[in-house]
Design goal:
globular, single chain, alpha+beta, eight-stranded antiparallel β-barrel
Length: about 240
């Protein structure tokens, strides 16, 4: 039961980086794991690499563009991330926590719920309680018509997830839907390593030329968040 995921993309000022990371990894995230309904947490540094030309990205200036770090927290359901009632104190109310949280700049946050998942060939070797060492996180919106949403659903159900279930090096993939935040949809891939991701994922459709045109049509109609999809390696837990 980890069907709710809170995802935060953000940058950090250089002068406070080490102080923030020490606080986050040694104090804040261990405390988060003790909250009701929380199952796991994982913090990643993104890899700087070019985004494929066929992917469209929003030019909406109101969407924050932070991309250096990704923090993911898994919970029983998305409701575990609801804010306190007006008569309740915030769990992040301590002055030290507020100070550290304020260091995040250009932060973009989304709470998502798991729509579906597929286990990959590397799932049996993955013994960590949370996410794998390497992830790829996509966050996007489909085209403006109901048909665009229908096509996206069919593509993931009939092609992308079944294809990923056969991909060497893949631990699992989760198709997500947005509960809060700019992105109405998301996808979270877990790989046993960055090397496995780079070796197998880019050419995963080459053995299936009959669906390449379908994939291209669906992908080109998506509008991604800034920098999406992000490939990242885990900083915490070690």
């Amino acid at each position: 039961m980890d069907r709710g995921i809170c995802i935060s993309w953000y940058d950090l000022p250089d002068r406070n980086r080490e102080e923030y990371l020490g606080w986050l990894h040694e104090r804040y995230l261990p405390a988060v794991l003790n909250r009701p309904g929380i199952r796991w947490a994982a913090h990643y540094a993104t890899e700087k690499r070019a985004v494929p030309d066929r992917l469209g990205h929003t030019d909406d200036d109101s969407v924050p563009k932070g991309n250096d770090y990704i923090l993911l927290i898994g919970a029983d359901t998305a409701h575990a991330f609801s804010k306190p009632r007006p008569d309740e104190a915030s769990e992040d109310a301590a002055p030290a926590d507020k100070k550290m949280l304020a260091l995040r700049v250009r932060e973009r946050m989304s709470i998502m719920a798991e729509e579906a998942r597929a286990e990959g060939p590397a799932a049996s070797a993955h013994t960590d309680p949370g996410l794998a060492r390497c992830v790829q996180v996509g966050s996007f919106n489909p085209g403006p018509t109901p048909a665009d949403g229908d096509d996206l659903l069919t593509w993931y159900a009939r092609w992308r997830l079944p294809c990923m279930a056969k991909l060497p090096g893949l631990v699992r993939v989760r198709k997500l839907v947005g509960v809060t935040g700019w992105s109405r949809h998301g996808v979270l891939y877990e790989f046993e390593s960055l090397e496995a991701r780079d070796k197998y994922f880019p050419a995963h459709e080459k053995p299936y030329p009959e669906v390449a045109a379908w994939s291209d049509k669906v992908v080109r109609r998506l509008m991604h968040a800034p920098g999406s999809p992000h490939v990242a390696q885990r900083l915490w837990p070690k």
